[in-house]
Design goal:
heterotetramer, A: 318 residues, alpha/beta, Rossmann fold, five-stranded parallel beta sheet, two-stranded antiparallel sheet, 7 strands, globular, B: 325 residues, 2 domains, seven-stranded mixed beta sheet, five-stranded mixed beta sheet, 11 helices, 14 strands, 20% strand, binds thiamine diphosphate, binds magnesium ion
Chain lengths: 318, 325, 318, 325
């Protein structure tokens, strides 16, 4: 029950945050690019919910929700997106090119899938030290074409590392449709070539995601090695907020909007006997307040000073 | 015709593809989308998907496949979506492409171009602002060009495509739509390896390339009001360097300021300064000065980016100091 | 019949050439490293035999035999190995770091598997121009761990390129045994993840190799796209002639020597009614003469002059 | 104790692993084989396969996994089998490791070392002879060291392992067994960022590092017989450069010859020359000279390799010329 509501809250928080960014972008209040994960909320919430603080996640550009669910302060995340001094990188980079190691969130570079070898390194530490922690490494079906994915999965297989690879298959890499990216339907098929299991699941179905990822996480914690979970999903927005996504049809978008993850989950809650009108309104208020506060914090935060660009390069200066 | 820098690139690609059916393009999202920056807009419609090939996100494959196609007679033009990502295909550029001819005993050609949208000033942050050119200027077998004007963007690209050696072509994102000038509609080439003297003078020399050219021209104009006349040398080609032009201006004015947007340490400016310090020493009336991006990463926040990048004001201040020697 | 004898000649020629190199290495007559393919003759002969001159092969460090079968002049190859002016690279590099594009042999760099994306580029040209040629791209099971293998196979699958990937699984990468390199038994399993077929075959069995590779080549010529063939085999020597291979057992070596590819093929010829003693002696003479001549040519060839190191960098000097 | 350069490396690894259980090694064939050059010989036996980890042939994974392990508190020492192959893990070094701390707003550490067996003179040809150091010296966030002596090989490796930043450690293959000297058995560090003055003099300065140090020392000894006294500065650390030491010797003698085995164009010598030409200009009595590998690939044949590489004789000739100014 508690959990049901927490999950709902998370779903709505992520959507509110993403939606707000989109709005702010169109108002010219965001200095850099915005890569919206609207429509993919079940995937990030379902996979990250329930992880321990010591577990690590490696989110990519569309996984803003993963930051929030893992425990990153929404205010710091918003400040990061606005390039403020209070942001996770202190204004050094923008959007999700920053992490919070204390929260178990690793900051990615822009180079898609380059995080996966690094995720293996974190998992290696867990294994070497006998710590029962796991690593979740996200990547798009587009990023799946990069060599680093292969090197990482192969190594994870050999070392039976506690890592769960999560492929967000939203059928497009920027404008490129899946058939131009790969000659197979399921990225999950590749796991067999690395000596572990691959599963496909409906990424818009919160329970399906929790079930698949949950089982993989448990396996990894028990020393059973890696798993690849492919979540089929869809991004409502263009590649970035600048992209009008003319490469796809309105019908296709409509079809996917009818599979909306939050809508599906609300249907479940209603079946469970909740007064959805009330719950929805109340949750809406709460998440709005959180995001309002994050925006206020971020916009009130100072910009970094120019010379701060020189700081943070080295731990031990020479 | 008034043409933007990016349109000049688009025009060059179209002309090259019309002139030679062996020319083809490959890269991410270059087809229906026309590329992240629209450099290939309209080309899919005219030339079809076999010659405007959308690839998976595989930079090493993109460069490697270009090498293979080039070795058997095609003339591939590969696009990196951002220059920053060339680091993911690095081995293919520096080991595979650069040595192809050499390791085949001279009996091979590698007529390919890698287009790299590079540069800062667009709030791109650490991984969408890089100037990776100096990684490649130290690799024999490659040629490296970096046009600053729309005219050169077109002429150097046509040259690069016609060249039988691998050319890494750095196009500057900041200039894409900010530079607009008269560019001939027809086909023409700007020769690789030749710098362009953008301004003649006798007191000090600016040696520069890419976006920094404009800071230098602005500073030179300002200095002229103060009675200081400047030479402004636009390198255009970074490998091989036009040593003749570099030494000529250094010997003429005896005072050189090298300016680039690339980071100071390890930028091509060190090489240029070293050439001058060794081969024009007797002519120097002042220290060889350099101005580049500060030695840090491409920070995102506005004040940070401004702080670290060269600007008209910084160039002017340095130019004044140099003139005052 | 003709073919039977040609194949035999090829097998013996490759072995003679490899054996001679080993001997010359120990006599100090070879300036660089020697990576012997002794024991793997069926693999290179069986896959390259019958290709057209226009077809391309991408041999790796242990595929000296592939050069010979594809038609590279043994004298030039030997001169290459000795770093002579008459060698394929004119002394610029050694051993197999050179090719002969006129013979359809692409020279590799040392970076293992970096050839595979390049092989795709050549195949792309064949496809674009509607030429019925194929590309054979070799790589070791060790090299299979590199990201370039993944990027190349994925692209070949998407574009249905006329390329046959040939994995030489000799169970070791230098000292590293297969279980430390991958968590699966068969590299061939990975083909499924790229939308084409993968087959395992006995790489010491000339007929098996010819059958599998031949079918894949025919498929590729007909526009049917790529195939991955994994050949299980074994190298008799250490990783290089410097390596004493203490990481493997004598028994293992013995076991594989008893599966000798030439021995197996001689048994076939004998069954077919040949006087093997005579045929073997006669063939031995012929290949010895060829290799003698190659060695003489190479050793008599001039060394390159120092300043030649500056030539061959550019086609069009600036 | 008389110790070879390679043994000094092996000793440093053993000491570091004994001193700190967070130190571990990863790379290809480093376990049972002890590495292609035996740098890790005996370490598998003492520390087990979890801390001496044989990896698949996956350079990008090796570097990337090191970054991950370092970020969560381990101290990985990764080995490239040859420095040349670092090009296959390039993105992980220059984008992932170098920016880790920066993009986490300073709240991250990346205490890792990448050992790169580099250098020419061993008939390695194009891909087993490279000196890739200058690709990395232009990347802030990294530190780059290149010891020339066995003492420094040990002390700098121990420093690098203890350092909280990523250090790219270039060890020279030619020196592995040719350099042999007294090295303390105990643990000690050579500080990163400090050059070493190997010889004091007043007429000319050699600035060098790595294998070229020995050519410089030989040439200096010969010049001494001719009445010319030389300073020989061994940079040891290439990023950050010891600007103080560089400028001190340049100002002292006014005549500088920079020597490295790395290629002339794009080698660190350009940067050093530029620093001198800008900041010691008033003290210079002669052109700043450079000697490096000729601008080509690492050709294999003996006469070719000899032709392109710096040598005692070439350094001596250049030194004489410089002294004669
Ligand atoms: C190595 C690399 N190449 C290219 C890009 C440019 N790029 C950014 S996002 C993107 C598409 C990614 O597609 P996918 O992995 O499917 O993720 P999605 O955006 O669909 O969530 C591309 C090509 C990049 N960031 N990194
Ligand atoms: C990218 C890269 N990393 C490392 C090496 C060093 N190296 C040369 S051969 C070899 C082992 C190759 O094993 P495999 O691919 O199985 O081929 P085999 O030698 O067994 O035929 C290694 C590690 C290399 N050449 N290239
Ligand atoms: Mg996608
Ligand atoms: Mg092998």
């Amino acid at each position: 029950m508690e959990r049901d509501l927490e999950l709902y809250h998370n779903l709505r928080l992520v959507r509110e945050f993403e939606g707000r960014l989109s709005k702010m972008h169109h108002q010219g209040r965001i200095p850099g690019g915005v890569y919206s994960g609207l429509g993919q909320e079940a995937l990030v919430v379902g996979s990250v919910y329930g992880l321990a603080r010591e577990d690590f996640i490696f989110p990519l550009h569309r996984d803003l929700g993963a930051f929030l669910v893992k425990g990153v302060d929404p205010r710091l995340l918003m400040a990061q997106i606005l390039g403020k001094k209070t942001g996770l990188s202190g204004g050094r980079d923008s959007f999700l090119h920053a992490g919070s190691l204390a929260d178990g969130v690793f900051g990615a570079t822009s180079m898609l899938a380059s995080s996966l070898p690094v995720a293996c390194g974190v998992a290696l530490k867990f294994k070497m030290n006998g710590e029962p922690n796991v690593v979740l490494a996200f990547f798009g079906e587009g990023a799946s074409s990069r060599g680093d994915v292969h090197e990482a999965m192969n190594f994870a297989g050999v070392q039976r590392l506690p890592v769960v690879f999560i492929c967000e298959n939203n059928f497009y890499a920027f404008s490129t449709p899946q058939p131009m990216e790969m000659a197979v339907e399921d990225v999950a098929d590749r796991a067999a070539g690395y000596g572990f299991k691959g599963h496909v699941c409906n990424g818009n179905d919160l329970f399906a995601v929790m079930h698949e990822v949950g089982a993989a996480v448990e396996l990894a914690r028990r020393g059973g090695g890696p798993t690849l979970i492919e979540c089929k999903t869809y991004r409502y927005s263009g590649h970035s907020e600048h992209d009008t996504a003319t490469y796809r049809t309105k019908d296709e978008l409509l079809e996917w909007e009818s599979r909306d993850p939050i809508y599906m989950y609300e249907f479940y809650l209603q079946k469970k006997g909740h007064d959805m009108a009330a719950l929805s309104a109340e949750t809406g208020e709460r998440v709005k307040a959180t995001v309002d506060e994050a925006v206020k914090f971020a916009e009130d935060s100072p910009d970094p000073e120019g010379p701060e660009a020189m700081d943070g390069l080295y731990a031990t200066q020479v | 015709m008034e043409t933007t820098y990016i349109k000049a690139i688009n025009d060059a690609l179209r002309i090259a593809m019309r002139e030679d059916e062996n020319v083809f393009l490959l890269g991410e999202d270059i087809g229906a989308l026309g590329g992240a920056f629209k450099a290939t807009e309209g080309l899919l419609d005219e030339f079809g998907s076999a010659r405007v090939l959308d690839t998976p996100i595989s930079e090493s494959l993109i460069v490697g496949a270009a090498v293979g196609a080039a070795a058997v007679g095609l003339r591939p033009v590969a696009e990196m979506q951002f220059a920053d990502f060339v680091s993911c295909g690095f081995d293919q550029v520096v080991n595979m492409a650069a040595t192809l001819r050499y390791r085949h005993g001279g009996n091979a050609k590698c007529p390919m171009v890698v287009r790299c949208p590079s540069g800062s000033g667009v709030r791109g942050g650490l991984f969408h602002s890089q100037n990776p050119e100096a990684w490649f200027t130290r690799v024999p077998g490659l040629k490296v060009v970096a046009p600053a004007t729309a005219f050169d963007a077109k002429g150097l690209l046509l040259s690069a495509i016609q060249d039988d050696d691998p050319v890494i072509y750095f196009e500057h994102k900041f200039l894409y739509r900010r530079v607009k000038e008269d560019v001939p509609e027809a086909s023409y080439v700007v020769p690789i390896g030749k710098a362009a003297l953008r301004m003649e003078g006798s007191d000090i020399s600016f040696i520069t390339y890419g976006s920094a050219l404009y800071h230098c021209l602005d500073a030179a104009a300002e200095l002229a009001k103060e009675g200081v006349t400047s030479e402004v040398l636009d390198l255009r080609t970074l490998l091989p360097l036009d040593r003749g032009a570099i030494l000529a201006t250094a010997r003429k004015t005896g005072k050189v300021l090298i300016v680039h947007e690339d980071r100071l340490t390890g930028g091509i400016g060190g090489e240029v300064a070293a050439i001058i310090a060794e081969h024009a020493f007797e002519y120097l009336d002042a220290p060889v000065m350099r101005l580049g991006m500060r030695d840090t990463h491409n920070a995102f926040a506005g004040a940070m980016e401004e702080y670290i990048l060269p600007s008209r004001e910084k160039v002017l201040a340095a130019g004044r100091k140099l003139a005052g020697y």
